[in-house]
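[Help] Beginner question about ligand-bound structures

Sorry if this is basic. My supervisor gave me a protein sequence and a SMILES string for pyridoxal-5'-phosphate and asked me to "get the holo structure". I don't really know what that means in practice or what format the answer should be in. Inputs are pasted below exactly as I got them.
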Amino acid sequence: MKQANFYPGPSRVYSNITEYIYEAYMEGIMSLNHRSGRFMEIMEETKKVLRARLLIPADYELVFTSSATECWEIIAQSLTMKKSQHFFNGAFGEKWHEYASRITNAEGVVFNQEVELPVGRVDAAADVICFTQNETSNGTQVALPTIEKLRKNAGSTLVAVDITSSLAGINLDFSKADVWFGSCQKCFGLPSGLGIMIMSPKAVEKAYELNERKHYNSLAFILDNAKKNQTSYTPNVLGIYLLLKTQTVSKGIRETEKKLMERLDIYEKVMAKTGLLNVVQNPAVRSRTVLAIQCADPETVKKKALEADIILGSGYGPLKSSTFRIANFPAIKTKEMEKLVKFLEKYYTR
Ligand SMILES: *Cc1c(COP(=O)(O)O)cnc(C)c1O
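Answer (accepted):
No worries, everyone starts somewhere. Holo just means with the ligand present. The predicted complex, written as structure tokens, is below.
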């Protein structure tokens, strides 16, 4: 690939993808019947590899969807009886709340992007507490100590976490919440069109307790099928196969996180040197996989970068005209990162 792509989704895909797509064609994966034994083997193997690489607890269930957005709706339709509560400080969390509001009674709690999520406001009477662990729009994160406090305050209420732009990049402690979900076009370094939902035994139990079965993607159907290593509709078989292949050769989440932290360090040094400022002042709530950088004229920087074969991420939503974003995702090559660092140093040192 000629251009180095730092867009935080859809983002750079792994280079060996072409090889795996060829292999998928030759082995008939793209025409594979999703009720066949071979497909069930692939499903089982993919779940096994994901569990091992991402350190997912053995008693957690893993199901596939089409996108993270679909997971928002599944949680609202199949895990919420009376009410969901949503904490957010950015565009994705806000959208989740908005989508859920159309389906159920969803309370929104907005918090400032410089502060920790206000765990004191958790309503343990809700069916599910929802938040975005890594807010891709403004480059904030909810760190583990906060998730642990939230878990405590939630009591027996389910906790659901959007990890679309940190899943497979950051080592997350899945035991600290009940539903974790994301899609493949961010840290997984894959094409779009595949979502993953990781569920605690308690979440599975609640899905069956509510037993909502009115939709093609009702969670009870999805779980019934997942037990047989099948899916309720013809899934993105190629996407699942590519996930299996790329995760099989991955060194695992601890190594991946280490690599991303080292790169983050390099970015921070360049920013200090050039005077570039992160949108988020408080380092404790700053994302480790998506950097949102303050910028007076993002259009010009992005244009200049493109001339150097670098694609910078645009700002998202209300931050579009005052920021650009850099994805710190695993599939980005060290060489590409170095190229970006050089560009920023040159562009911002006058
Ligand atoms: C990208 C993103 C989504 C949307 O993902 P889709 O696969 O397009 O549904 C949701 N939440 C967050 C935090 C994201 O970064």
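A couple of things worth pointing out: The mean pLDDT is 97. Residues 83 and 105 are 5 Å apart (CA to CA). Feel free to follow up in the thread.
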